[in-house]
Amino acid sequence: MSLSDRIAQRTQGESAWPTPMIEPSADVGAAPVERHRFNARTTADPVAEVRPRMQRALAEILGPTLYGGQADGVEDLEQRVRQTLADLLAREETPLAGADRARITQEVTDEILGHGPIEGLLRDPTVSEIMVNGPRSVFIERAGRIQPAEVEFDDEAHLRRIIDRICSRVGRRVDEASPMVDARLPDGSRVNAVVPPIALDGSSLTIRKFAVQPLSVTDLVRFGTLTRNTADFLRACVRGRANIIVSGGTGSGKTTMLNVLSGFVPGGERIVTVEDAAELQLRQEHVVRLESRPPNFENRGVISIRDLVRNALRMRPDRIVVGEVRDAAALDMLQAMNTGHDGSLTTLHANSPRDALARLETMVLMAGMDLPLRAIREQTASAVHLVIQVSRLRDGSRRVTHISEIVGMEAEIISLQDIFLYDQGSAALAATGIRPRLLESLLIHGVTVPAGTFTEGRR
User: Fold this and answer.
1) What does pTM read for this prediction?
2) Do residues 402 and 352 lie in contact, with contact meaning Cβ atoms separated by under 8 Å?
3) SS3 helix, strand, coil % of the chain, rounded to 5?
4) Which residue intervals define the domain Bacterial type II secretion system protein E in the entry (predicted)?
């Protein structure tokens, strides 16, 4: 029986080999090939006709190599896959243009070694987030804007195979018993997957890609997120050991801002970072990174953010940086700020500086210590110096809209004053004319801020 006959016969059944679960190399040997949205039910596309045969034949020929560990690394495996595909395509009887052959090679390689239809999106440096709402609905974020992606999965089973592959590579599982998973890929990208029965319209997959080269303060000024004047002020606040909260909604740029602020910490200080999923990229030498751990398959072994913050206090830190507080860990963070760990930084979800304080209060109450509201507010007022509010605007851009100072208590209310506010007319942060009280504490640490920084209207 000829090879083409065997391939044709093979398409009537299932391959003897399962779907591969091999992570792709970060460097792809061949240039990316543009994918096309294609409905699998349409038979006019020769690529859709030939691709499944090539994939099954490849699995049949290279099965032991793909699954038996006989290849010398991913690069060697990819080379064998591409060479075998070239041989198979050379014997293929269906007329194919050169572009179709390249497309088949790329798509089969992505399916065998990578993450199927979304592999090209993962390689694309302009894509920051991938959102899969079901096998036929894929969206991406590019330059701050959400747009449809020109890719899709064959069906729900295809999407589930890719989700299972991603989860298995990081030692996690997702099924009916555990239908949600939150994990971090080896490259640092954050993954969230939700499957039926709680995902009603098919499995959902969200990947927030890890920036290999994090944005710098220069980038934020260039993008208009900050002005040079406000960037210099924030640098002075961090060097002067002010405690800062970065507040904002999902996808507003909180972690990016926190990373930039952390970069202002002098190199000689010991920094302990605490995160749910490691995203911060500090360049200082004296850094200890801690990451929380979810429960295992037996629902044991969980290590929470609160556990890590408590442990960080025993590690003789000069600064504690918490990626995000969202529960009772807020109490431990406030205590750290109030007990000699000045200059600590964190983020939380809120829509304004005032909302951030209310949310902080709610999270402290979650600790179950039955603290009076006034005591919580007094501790907050004495611990936190600045709240930086970041927002994502309608055009997709990310802007700092408030830099507000906590100045104490008035009766039962925490007093806030805005030092800088976003001006809609000029689309930039502008000084309100208020001179912050924390300048005196900055001076104690040898940090001075030019008086002209706060001239009303200065950007």
Assistant:
1) 0.78
2) yes
3) 35, 20, 45
4) 313-327
CA nearest neighbour of 119 among 176, 199, 202, 35: 35
CATH code: domain 115-211 is: 3.30.450.370
In the chain, what are the domain boundaries?
A: 1-113, 115-211, 217-454
- Class of residue 457 by CB neighbours under 10 A (exposed 0-12, middle 13-18, buried 19+): exposed
* pLDDT bucket at 169, cuts 50 / 70 / 90: confident
More confident call, 284 vs 67: 284
CB within 8 Å of 327: residues ≥ 6 apart? 304, 305, 306, 363, 366
pLDDT in tens, 410-449: 988 999 999 999 988 888 899 999 999 999 999 999 999 9
| Distance from C-alpha of 8 to C-alpha of 319, rounded to nearest angstrom | 64
145: burial class by Cβ within 10 Å (0-12, 13-18, 19+)?
exposed
Residues 436 and 454 sit within 8 Å (Cβ to Cβ): yes
207, containing H or E segment: strand 204-208
Q: Is the peptide bond before 197 cis (omega within 30 degrees of 0)?
A: yes
Give φ, ψ of 288 to 5 degrees.
-120, 125
Can 115-211 and 217-454 be said to share one CATH topology?
no
CA distances for 93 relative to 42, 53, 54, angstroms? 20, 12, 12
Give the CA dihedral 10, 14, 15, 17, nearest 10 degrees: -170
> Which CATH superfamily, name and number, covers 217-454?
P-loop containing nucleotide triphosphate hydrolases (3.40.50.300)
The DSSP H or E segment spanning 10 is helix 3-10
Return the beta strands (E) in 7-158 as ranges. 127-134, 137-142, 145-148
β-sheet bridge partners, residue 353: none
Rounded to an integer, what distance in angstroms lies between the CA atom of residue 362 and that of residue 332? 14
Q: What is the pLDDT of residues 81-118, one digit of tens each?
A: 888 888 888 877 777 787 888 888 888 888 878 888 99
User: What distances in angstroms separate CA 122 from CA 20, 153, 258, 452, one per listed residue?
Assistant: 18, 15, 24, 45
